[in-house]
Input
Amino acid sequence: NGGEKALLWVRNEFEVGTFEACRRWVRESESSELERTTTVARQDGARSVVFLGTPEVAARSLRMLSERFRQNGMCDIVAVVTQPPAPSGRKRQLASSPVHLAAGELGIDQIFTPTSCKEEDFLEAMERLQPDLCVTAAYGNVLPKRFLSIPKEGTLNIHPSLLPKFRGAAPVPRAIECGETETGVTVTFTVFKMDAGPIVTQRSISLRGEEKAPDVLSHLFEMGTEALLDVLPSVFSKTAVVIDQNESQATHAPKIKPEEARLTLTENAAIVHNRVRAFSGWPGTYLDVLIGEDPVSHRLKIITTRIARRDGGPALGVHEVKLNPDTGNLLFVCDDGSALDVEEVQPPGKKVMAAKAFW
Output
């Protein structure tokens, strides 16, 4: 930045003692500005908040919080912490995270992008800020104990599952993959152990069996942000009723691996259907399909499915693929005789299309 360039010029032009004096002056000026910002927030009655998040669902939470705080004056978002710019798109050019972009649009000046939250400069900056509260939403970095000790009222986390079920990196996809009929969102106080903090509030939704992970994730983060806003007054007044998680009921939601995108028809149609829903967005799902009198292999991305037949008899590994006369969709028969109705596919190099159009 400009300050660092100026310091490099000073180092080249003056002796070391003068350079170090300038560096101290810059640091003291930055510290004074941080103190001034925090003081202003306290003088007008607003609590200072640092928001940590990265993807688009977290950017939506940041906008919701910012809008509500402007309306009620309860808090002031004084800084945002997000993942550093990462390669994106076909050209793999560095791009700022959705939360980074949203913070800029909202006029939040202090945006931190540490590679690790253990970085000394980052921790010192947080200690100078002395926020009243931190809020995390799909941030993606482990928060060390030193960080967690900084905010006076603690750190609240929005986690899209009914904790203690589905702790970890992919709670929504794993819940859908397992065929859960209910899920939800939990607001917890963050502790050093992943997603294991005491529960402040929970909200649940029913799943019909057709929802896809990206849609559920977006809905849950909006729900979770509203839930967090509802409990904030009790958090600040220290009257919030918190409940410790039951460790014996805890389950894990591990990160999704790219190789999980490949589907097979050796399992029941319900299992295949749930994977299509769970891995929608990323990494997606695909099948290698033989079609035609002289069978040609097609690698199809499977976009939307329904269960045509949950039970059946042995299909002897035939994996029949045909047009379903009742729906006009492709019908995939699995090993156990169950059947999957495929509504939408994406052939290589083409856009998503109705399955019957591909056939």
User: Anything to note?
Assistant: The longest strand covers residues 296-309.
